[in-house]
Amino acid sequence: MSTITKQPHAPSRPWTIYVIHHSHTDIGYTERQERIEQYHVDFIRQALKICNTAHTQEHPEWKSFRWTCETFWAVEQFLKEASPDEQEAFQQAVTRGQIELSGTYLNMTELPDFDLLLRNHSKAQQYASSFGHRIDSAMTADINGYSWGYASSLLQNDIEHLFSCIHTHHGMYPLGRKQTPFWWEAPDGGRLLVWNGEHYMFGNELGFCPGALGKYIIKDEFQHNLVEPEHRHNEIAALRINRYLWNLEQETYPYSFVPVMISGLGTDNASPNGEIAEWIAEWNEQHGDRITIKMATLSEFFSALKQEDLSSLPVHQGDWPDWWTDGVASTAMHTQVYRDAQRTLRKVKRLNPGDEVVAPEDLDKAAQALTMYAEHTWGFHSSVYEPWHPQVQMLEVRKQAYAAEASTRAYRALDKALAARNGALLAPGRPLRYEVINTEPAQASLQVAIPLDGWETTIVQKPFELIDESTGASLPYQLSPGRPLITELTLEPDESRILHIRPLQRADEPSPIVTARNNEPIACEGISDIWALPEASYPVVIGDTSIESDFFRIEWALNKGITSWTDKTRSCDLMDAGHKHAPFTPVYEVTSVQGEHTPPEMCAVRSRMGRNRKGSHVERDTGRLVRAKVLDNGSLYALLELTFEVKGLSYYAIHLKMFANQPRVEVSIRLHKDSVWLPENLYVALPFSMGPQAELYVEKAGCFLRPWKDQIPGSCLDYTCAQEGVFWHSPSDREALLVSMTDTPLVQLGPMEHGPRKLHGMQAEGSRPLPYAWLLTNYWETNFKATLGGFYEFHYAVERRSQVDPAEGANALHASTGQFTVHRIK
Asked: What pTM was computed for the model?
């Protein structure tokens, strides 16, 4: 290593750099998923060999080597394959502090619910405790945010520290600066010590790894598309290290040390590299009096940090929305399957207390499939540049297969749990009995579809009653041609009812012969399509441009969509006065390329978007209502179809189901998206409000919070990832308006217009978000699915609740979205 005696930008005080060596885990970004697994198993073997040879003095030059297992998933795969001797050697290296376990399982999106977070964060700690060890730190890489409940999950698993390696590609770090610590206060008041760090391969850019000199964050005079920089490695490293520390001093950085992450190769999913320890030893021999470099574990770094006076560290409460969670909308159908599977798994757990029926390992296999789908890697790195490539296609199918596997395993577990509750499988003469169960944490009043097999539909063509066996009472129901038998129940949490269908005549008795009915609205062709005869009296009244129950009145106009949504109980319009788009109206965006539709240009137009998720020349189209049609009306509900025209879609229709006896409207959105290679977004407006004093809440994993208020400074304002939906709460009268989002988790909150993005703390005083459901996107230039084309159906519900506080509103969202569980019993 050449000696450089003078630097043009040298730090003025002694420094220590803590180098944390790891391999960033990207499952399916650089290789096939199972190949990545094989790599990471071997990486641990390589790290173990380096540690053992250093410990035995076979390679004393590696004595300072440290390896941090970024994810416990990699350790888990290693332990499955390791021999007993390897497992023992690994535990000894962990105990000696040469190898460290991070408390994180994988780098995740915000899809996991709190149950899954707790499960994943418990794994490393449980393994460590098996040999008398304890983990106090966790790290993430690439992702740049987490739900507020993430902090609670770590703390509940005895993790005290979180090191966040932020990647600012289409994202940004919070707090206005990187390389800074703070206390993150969880919803329950516990505090997690967080280091808001640099990119996870920044050490490579500084030159700590021979042969892996990178240039990504650093912008200087050295061109890395040439061979020359590697010949000047030590010179470039010295310049960059000195400049970096000098710059920290100019920024009034308060510490004499700084942490830096490093990879053993210039890539994600990279092996450990003993030469890093050798290079550091050579550096310290020549420059250690001024700048000392130490390989360290997370725990060693946080131990050094806690030697400082941390009493003045800022304490931040609230959400830390992840800029990178938007990948879930590039495979929206599979995300829908994932969310249903996650919800189903929660049902199984409530139906299976004490693991009496479904074995824990069966539940764990379903949870593992959920985890693998929700991991942050959304495809092969060239998915937009060459979407036809076999590797792109293969990895896309395999990623989506995790959602399918989770669904299969969750429903198989549900089938077992229901069979144990006297469930009836197919057999001649099955009784027409059904159990209806509320598996959600709040009381709910919902409509229930009673399942009948195709050959049984003749049963309900004759007179019958639907009996509640707990009371003996006959329940109201609605039966329409081609639709299931619908009834309505109110159930407390974990309450169940048994219903049965009782014919009012003997099965062998012939149906009454009818010559003609003078008051039946059915024409000679046998089609019943007239619903508003003067003689008919339905609880939901439908006019030419309105639909109305005792609770809501909704009006619409052609070309405009829904023009008002009145809460009749409160005598107010539930649409926000500042809304730009009508409820459930589609808003489509596309950004064209400048020139031919070539792979380089398809990538370039996306890479220039930054944090806008669209180009400055974006074209936006708002759906136009072209047709309204009544599909059904009866004693329990009315069903209305609103059809829109909008660019980018060949079909878009809303099925709006207004309940007669409850303040609830269920909405089904059906669409056919054209296949387009250009970057696109599709939103659906949710412009609701409960008045100027009402607060908007979003329900997330392990918490509920007010976006734009309960967030850490400098975090993303534009969108967030919900679990079950959003709700507005009016504290003066304890009323809430819930919008459950069964299938689509992303909520757009900030302005759609292209321009400089605002972070939390920059918004104007009194400004408030106007939410949209962000259904589809393919803007990312590397690993999103290139086209969004296909058929989709997404479900929502709008419901008013009375006498609830925000916590009850969050639970009510679960009940609203989860629906009742219905099954046939003996």
From this structure: 0.94
